[in-house]
Amino acid sequence: MMNNKQLADTFTLIANLSEIKGENIYKTLAYRKAADSLMSLGREASEYWKEGKLKEIPGVGAAIAEKIDELERTGRLEFLERLKKEVPVGLVEWLPIPGLGPKRAALIWKTLNITSLAELEAAAKEGKLRNLPGMGAKSEAAILEGIASLGRRSTRLPLGKAYPLAQELCEQLKKVKGVVDAQPAGSLRRMRSTVGDLDILVASRDPAAVMDAFVKLPRVHRVLGRGDTKSSIEFNDGMRAQLWVHPPEKFGTALVYATGSKDHNVRLREIALSRGLSLSEHSFLKVKDDSEIFCATEEEVYKTLGLPWIPPELREDRGEIQAAKANKLPRLIQLKNIKADLQTHSTWSDGKLSMLEMARAAAKRGMKVIAFTDHSVSLGVTGGLSMEDHKKQAAEIRKIQKQLGDSILVLHATEVEIKADGTLDYPDEFLATLDLVVASLHTGLRQPREKVMQRVLNAIRNPHVDIIGHPTGRLIPDREGADIDMEAMLQAAKESGVAMEINAHPARLDLDDVPARRAKELGIPLSINTDAHSESDLDLLFYGVATGRRAWLEPKDVINCWSTDKLLKWLKKRK
DNA sequence: GCCGTTTTCGGCCCGACTGTTTTCAGTCG
After folding, report:
1. Which nt is closest to the CA of A196, judged by C1'?
2. Which residue is nearest to nucleotide B27 (CA to C1')?
3. What CATH number belongs to A335-574?
4. What is the pTM of this model?
């Protein structure tokens, strides 16, 4: 059995090899499309396969369905094995090198008869590339530089790192003379949990001045390209940023273009064409008479297409265009809708502030309810609480509640450890005495799927557990989550009525958008919490909200948006 | 290879930038 990631990787490999082979470009695109589609699918493709419904997956037709079938049945794919014999698989390692695409890879491979990254580097150093047709000394140097940068570059950047950086870049660019506006775009504006590079859009009538400032930013390692309206740079740490500059009257079309996603933009352009318009980052061009329509705002762009404005978090071609056409876009949750923080830590375990300080900080940020979910006893490194400690904590909560008055309601809760043996860290009789129970995995994350699933299902089915905290345990970018059968986990959650968390910490964002959307589809309540260990952690809530927005969540889907009454009733009913 | 409120065949988004060229191919997003 193969999971969606493995299938997507397989089709991406086919796409890359086909492209080097020189196969019809639309075939290549079809494989890439199928790979993307599999990655944004809420359920495992293997489920569709069992039901004989593979072709219901967008981008999967007869040919790709057959290939998935063969992979599911035999674990291998004859088509891919043959392809690998035609095109050496080592060549795909060349493709991430900037300026080296499939055509040149094929040219170098066939003329010089080399297939590995090491051989490519050697050939470039020996000056063997500059004499190939269409290439010269500059291309050769660019390839060498590109190989060197592969080591420097991390893969994708966590949103939590990229977001503040992009804000900072925009602030610097706004100081440049003539700049009217500077906004982050790309996957960062769509708030993906990781981003490939930073995309910045600037409105100005003096693009040259902005370009000058951009390429001279601190820590710039090299300039990858510089034109009249577009430039890109690489920083010392390998991170890349690109900049577009457009005059204010074109800012709307330019922002839509720069925000993407690519697939979303393709859809918009198709709609434009069906209305006799050609859409680019500059304008709508009337096909009939070549006259132009300019849009200073995104709203005007979508309006011209007969659509309501679509929030950036939805722009992934996952049904948002159809929903917009039918006027059925979700009324997405907003930061201000969140009234309760149901996972926080205090000095009772590994938090930095006392409960009183944390509660006041949360109240200051508009929270009406805060739950202290200090760690349970077995998580020793965090100073986990014994049941005896909990009695003292309960007394302390009664005390601070008096001081806090009705500014914020404090819940006595726990983040109880789902231990490696599958049991919870406290007995049921004790859990029953708490206001709220979050159960989480922190240890034994590398256990085999069967074992880890047995643990998680045990926690989900425990009637005292209200929320499953950061369900996969992943840490961005260093640690993959546990080997969870997501569909089985969500089905169990649906049965037990437990809420699934979207942990707002940018190193977690767990659940991520795709499984969270599937949870909503199944009617499972979601809970967006900061997991704050300090006051500043409380300000990370918007990352969780953004992930929820990417999952199409509305206030009714998220227990943190409910009125205090409704939340307390829900908790009581679960006892 | 996928897909269809014109289509089951014939399309499939659009432009910027670079390096190598004398008008364009390759790459990228």
Report:
1. B29
2. A99
3. 3.20.20.140
4. 0.92
